[in-house]
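If your schedule permits, I should be very grateful for your opinion on a structural question. I would ask you to consider whether the tokens describe a fold that such a sequence might reasonably adopt. Thank you for your consideration; the sequence and its tokens are set out here.
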Amino acid sequence: MRDSARLAIAVSILAAATFVARPAFAQAQDFSKVEIKTIDLGHSTYRLEGAGGNITVAVGSDGIIMVDGQFAPLHDKIKAAIAAISPLPIKYLVNTHYHGDHTGGNESFQNDGAIVVAQDNIRVRLAAGTTFVNGNKVPPASPGALPKQTYVGGSMTLEVGGRKAELTHLNNAHTDGDTIVYFADANVLATGDIMSNTKRYQSIDYPNGGDIRGVVRALDALLAIANDQTRVVTGHGAPATRADILEYREMAATVRDRIEKLVNEGKSEAEVIALRPLKDLDAKWAADDSAAINFLKMAYNSFKRS
């Protein structure tokens, strides 16, 4: 796939990923201006921030485990940022879900010799092509961008040079293929887009398995792992803590309960929008009124999905 095609796909996916929090969209299209920022999380584990999903890097004695790869045009910058941390090779690149701001780098990093690892639903989504909540369509990924190693069960473990990454599939949350990654030796937890730490609503990709009920279950699973010292790398936003997970969980559970009541009463999408049942939450969690309505639609339609 040519770089121009990758860029078109990346922009389409970013539009979907920022469907709720739109202000970042316009600025992120010019990848030439993106700088990769590195934060040391301790115990040879790092967080990289650029454009798209945050990256986690764990350095072992003979190689590196990387979580998420952002957009294809950022490959060289990300590779350089990791090389500044360690000269060791990237052995595994874990995808937390299929969205292109997390998987765009798959093909280039696999060409470098890394093995992309993902829950199998991610492979299926990438291979088939997808339609997002905002109607944007993305064609099937090229064969080189598909994960080479997948898992179907609830969890798997990767090990590189004494570093272990514990992968857990949390189904029907942000998507149907969400993987969280925990590095126990560093007490670092990567959540993917199950939540962000932007203090904004996170999108729910209901056409591709996302569900507000699953989001709450997934957040409970994160809380069961994290303690007050855990360094949390969310899909987007600043470094987070267990308290941030709890705050987001309280909001998400409130959304679930309110929308479920209206769905059970037989309310249509239009009727739910007219009622604005999340108005008090919108004041804190929505960037603007349009973002508030978009999130309400996603939460409502996640119930209709099943």
Q: What stands out?
A: Residues 17 and 123 are 19 Å apart (CA to CA). The domain at 3-304 is CATH 3.60.15.10 (Metallo-beta-lactamase; Chain A). Residues 242-264 form the longest helix (23 residues).
